[in-house]
Design goal:
TIM Barrel, 9 helices
Length: about 260
């Protein structure tokens, strides 16, 4: 048995036994894919990192400054974020935005797209379902933590309802082309009239399930039991060079919380 691995696992046990919140950071996936000379995987594959990366991430809540943006380059890049909520807790949105700002050393995110928690089978998304999360995003816009906010997978009717109700209007709406190979004409017309940018994506409805999270954690911590940890949110950030339109850096932040007895 490798003494170093034993020490690492013992330290991991101590950290997890005493911690109430767990924050993980994948690091820059753009550099990693270049080093490995392979194309990036699907979003679900990207966020689930090899277990050899896990101990370093576990040892620190704020990761290495690999993706930190210097003041000199801030005006040259755009910081774009998509936040996948795993539970309907408004503080999760604020926590995720704050962690992203700290990780990237910026005072404001240029855009944040929200993906609310999944619904029960048979239920459909409604304005009432979106409102609590949107109100939290509006608060973060007013405090200048976010410049623009957007939505994901809203049809024309729901996007119109949100637009008419919201104080801070959605600047974008993502459409999954896996379920809609052509933009719906009514959605396109509405977005054009009210200057809402329509974007495409290929994210699954559930980026990472609770079971997948616990399985990935188990791989990285050997015999530790992770059943009492629940996934709160997954945030994907992209740092885009404005003048060239290329992604300089991309990574994920993940938050989990230990269930209270």
């Amino acid at each position: 048995m490798d003494p170093q691995n034993t020490d690492t696992n013992t330290e991991a046990k101590m950290l997890l036994n005493h911690a109430k919140t767990l924050r993980l950071h994948t690091g820059n996936l753009v550099n990693r894919s270049r080093l490995k000379k392979k194309c990036p995987g699907s979003p679900s594959e990207e966020v689930r990192q090899p277990k050899t990366d896990f101990p370093d991430t576990l040892d620190c809540s704020i990761p290495q400054e690999t993706d930190a943006i210097t003041p000199e380059e801030r005006e040259e890049v755009k910081v774009s974020v998509k936040l996948f909520l795993c539970e309907s807790v408004q503080s999760s949105i604020r926590d995720a935005v704050e962690m992203a700002c700290q990780t990237l050393t910026v005072s404001q995110l240029d855009s944040v797209i929200i993906a609310p928690p999944g619904l029960l089978e048979g239920d459909s998304q409604t304005l009432a379902h979106l409102q609590p999360a949107w109100e939290e995003l509006e608060t973060l816009v007013r405090s200048q933590r976010i410049a623009a906010i957007g939505t994901s997978d809203l049809d024309k009717d729901l996007l119109e309802q949100l637009y008419n109700w919201a104080q801070v209007k959605p600047s974008s709406n993502q459409v999954n082309l896996a379920s809609c190979c052509v933009m719906p004409p009514d959605l396109t017309a509405f977005a054009k009239e009210f200057d809402i940018q329509l974007l495409t994506h290929n994210d699954p409805k559930e980026l990472m399930s609770a079971a997948t999270f616990q399985e990935a954690m188990q791989e990285g911590t050997q015999d530790l039991k992770m059943a009492d940890w629940r996934l709160e949110w997954v945030l994907r950030y992209s740092i885009i060079v404005k003048s060239r339109g290329i992604i300089k850096s991309k990574g994920y932040l993940v938050s989990a919380r230990k269930a209270t007895p």
